[in-house]
Amino acid sequence: MKNIKLIAGIAWAAAGLLIIILLFPGLETMSGKLANLPFMKINPNFSGGEVERQLVSPVCTLDIRRPVFDGLFSERKEGFVQLDWRGKLPGEIEDSIDYNFDSIPDFYIKIDTKQSATFLKAVNPAVRDINISAATSYGWAVRVNLIRNPSTLPSGEL
Amino acid sequence: MDDGTSVLKPNKPAGRSLLYTLPMLLITFMFMTGGRPDFSDSAQILALMITFAGVNVLFFLMHFTGKTDRYRAVLFIAFALSLSFTLISNMLETRSSMSFNQSDILECRIPFCHLVIPMMIIPAAFTESIIFPGSIIGGFADIASMVVLWLTATIVLGRGFCSWGCFYGGWDDGFSRVRKRSIVKNISDSWKWMPFAVLFMVAITAALTLVPTYCDWICPFKAVTEFEQVTGVESALKAGVFISLFAGLVVVLPSTTKKRTQCSFLCPLGAINSISNKLTPFTVKIDKNACSECLKCVKTCPLFALTPADIKEGQASIFCSKCGKCIDICPNNAIHYGIKGVPAGTRKNFSRNLYLFVSFLFLAVFSSGSIINTLRKLLDFII
Asked: Do the beta carbons of residue B31 and residue B368 sit within 8 Å?
């Protein structure tokens, strides 16, 4: 038994040497394989969620992403919707946004890209306020805070 | 393989040490140059040659003198300093600031580090996603590469990762060496369980909030890498916490206690690495027949990994990062690197040579990029 343990220990240690020698040349392949696993994607709370609709105008494109309420087990009460304007942006952006695609605008948004000022006018009671509004490498991105089910709020908070 | 009972003798024949260093020379040369050194850039080649020579001289000296920790520490500390230098200089060049802004978060451009790993496990299991605004693959410090590097190293080295692979550990290791004698003594070693509590807390809070809470609120190394732009009370408070914890746990306490207090009392990844010490083939063993129970090793261990009970048991505890400090200080050569399954006091040289080759190779290759980059920038500045 002692000899088996000894041989197994030395074999495992020698395998360790081999693993470390192969680690760096094989890093790209191994990390590529890991990246393909189903859980290797950025959580929507960081990535902003998938693009659901793209509105193309002569100067820029507006991506409306899916509202993100993702929690650990179920949806959260509070979330956000991310909008991305891509392309050559005008000094002032003004859009009405229908994020739930019911053909009724949910909020109006105005961005002064020169002054970095963002104004929001909510129509849908689920729309709360601006979470992030920032210049990006591709143009401008805004996250607007939302409530999943505004009917559950006390009337004073609406 | 040696005769199995010999005691490590310092200052081995130089030829034998050179022979032992030869494979390291070849492998590090291949990894550092990619097999094709670019001689057109003289500053780059000079930085590469300095790093290559320095690394291999340290490895040679480890074998030649029989001492481990003093040479390991040089490279380990250089790694920590050079990585912070590389990150900060990159941030200053590209953003004129050490802080990242909202667009970096929106575009998932935050460099990933291994300290996030304890927080991403539960969310990855339940939401099939990673709760970090970084790049999955490609770009600087992508998530997939960092996970592969850490996972492989921790399986092979166990908590040895904390002394041979972590690019933060060199900070408190360095500060723990500033003073010759400790001012604060008699710290209860029960504090070494604290990282398990931190691990539990950050894993749960990160799962519930889907935010890497340790990075967001606690990580002391934000002070020497990058942190969220201060735009309000919350971000100012976070910056205050990062700087205070860095000053307290990485600078002041290590300097006064001669212990790696951040690694011992806070780091949640250290707790996971302690558990992985059960998997690794390598360990630190105590030859009870040779031990005189002087307890010098217990006093010198920077991670509270050795207790009199461990000495009686003949093996360092799961907290051991295999830094080699206890081995270097033992007057009887009773403590040595060992391989699981191999009885204590036997095959000392073989176990040490194998462990040092594995761990040093990982440290040398992992650290070389940032050390070369730092030297290159310093050379550009000087010349």
From this structure: yes
C-alpha to C-alpha distance for B55 and A94, rounded to whole angstroms = 59
- Percent of chain B residues topping a pLDDT of 90: 79
pLDDT tens for each residue of B212-221:
999 999 999 9
Decide if pLDDT at B170 tops 60.
yes
Burial of A138 (0-12, 13-18, 19+ CB in 10 A): middle
Indicate yes or no: CB of B358 within 8 angstroms of CB of A20.
Answer: yes
Q: Angle at the Cα of B62 (from B147 to B279), degrees rounded to 5?
A: 35
**B5 or A41, greater pLDDT:** A41
Higher pLDDT, B98 or B31: B31
Q: Please list every residue in chain A whose beta carbon sits closer than 8 Å to the beta carbon of residue B101.
A: 134
Distance between CA atoms of B161 and B16, rounded to whole angstroms?
A: 28
pLDDT of residue B113: 92
- The two tokens of residue B104 are 């970096």
Please tell me the distance from the alpha carbon of residue A65 to that of residue A99, in angstroms, as a whole number: 8
Which of B103, B126, B281 has its CB closest to that of A72? B126
Q: Residues 6 or more apart from B339 whose CB is under 8 A from it?
A: A9, A10, A12, A13, B281, B282, B283, B347, B351, B354, B355
Closest partner CB to A134 (pick from B101, B155, B362):
B101
The pLDDT, as a whole number, for residue B230 is 86
Across A3-106, where does the E strand assignment appear?
51-56, 60-65, 68-70, 75-87, 92-97
pLDDT band at A156 (very low <50, low <70, confident <90, very high): low
> Which domains are present in chain B?
10-96+347-383 (no CATH), 98-279 (no CATH), 281-345 (3.30.70.20)
Q: What is the mean pLDDT of residues B293-314?
A: 94
Q: What residues of B are in contact with residue A73 (Cβ under 8 Å)?
A: 126
Separation CA B377–CA B87 (nearest Å): 12
Q: Which two tokens stand for residue B338?
A: 């060992």
Whole-model pTM? 0.92
